[in-house]
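Chapter summary example.
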Amino acid sequence: MKVKEVIKDLKHLDPEAEIIHAWWEKDAFPDVADKDWSYAVGRVDSRMDWSQAQEDIEMTIEYALDMNTFRED
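The structure predicted for these 73 residues follows.
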C-alpha cells in the first residue's frame, strides 16, 4: 500500500481521534531485495490474514490495563 492511499483512507477520521496504527517499511525486512519490495507489499496487502490482529491488540490492552502499565496516575 502506498502512503498516499493510507492518507486517503484516514481522511474521514477526526484528526484529534486516537487510533491504533501499525506499518512496516522496507528497512524492517533486510532480506527482501529493493527490486522485490513492491511485489512483496502487494502480496501482503492481498494475501495476509489479519484476522488475529484485533484479538492480539485486545489481549495486549487488557493485559496492560490489568497491570496498570498504561496509566500514569
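To summarize the output: Helices lie at 3-10, 34-47, 53-67.
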